Amino acid sequence: MTDLSDRIVRYGELIPCKTAFIDAHTPGSDQKENFTIIGGGVSESPDQHVHIGLPHGFNIGAAGQPPRVRNSLHDHHTAEAFFVLKGKWRFFWGRWGDAGEVVLEEGDIFNIPTGIFRGFENIGTDYGMIMAILGGDDAGGGVMWAPQVIEDAADHGLILGENGKLYDTKRQQKLPDGVGPMPLMSDEELAKRPEPTTADVLPNHVARYWDLYALADKKPAKVIGEHGLLRDKPGFEVDFITRASSTEAKHQHKYPSVLMPMRGHWRVTWDGGETILAPGDTMSVPENLAHSAVPSMTGEASLYHIVATGDPAGKTWQG
Fold it and tell me: Which single residue of 45, 74, 76, 231 has CA 20 to 30 Å from 141?
């Protein structure tokens, strides 16, 4: 019997960090919560709790925010894909956040192109939650912030060191000897960054929940992958499974995989064990372990399934 209890993170047991990033004191961003579910994540704070530290080839995280709270403009060296678990969210991008934008509803997924600053805000009426997939075990080595984010943070007491760690002057913290502040991107570097419009981004980077639900009526829909609806090779693939496309037949993968229910309750079975997953729960399945996932109750049921591929994590694939 394989005990997987330490590879299941329940939504109600998620431990937030409110000081994860440089904008933690900046008005408009100071109420957001960051969650690191699988992998080391990209938090800049030692306060961040990691639920499952095992390497998967990708990271799983989440952001929870009250209405009108935003996450500041930033970028990663590898893929950053989000699906909306709760609420209504506006994603925006570009040097100043005005190159383009898209509004995502519950279940929608956005594979954000690398190389552009992006931010997001909860525009719903209640606390919202988005689930994140970051490419690579080290999630690209950290976060790159738009220069104005670093400048604004300094005005509110937070300094990011060149070592990638935060120092809070309100707590009498200061940069250690020999560690300088994180340098701002030069105008030359910033000028090289593309400013794609909404029309440029939407076709190959956004998939709507009900479109995926329709596509997954006979077999799981390949959402992100070399042959996916959103074509990319970020080091992982994302499938979308519904009641109609689920099966009791067990299967296995050569790399670790993750199950993330969107709607309904799902019974996951493996040799010698089973569990029930609810929306917002996250389950890591070891490589080469035969398992199945099927809805355990009637009604709408959908699930995101992430599998590592062994491809190197890097820039958005242009194949």
Answer: 231
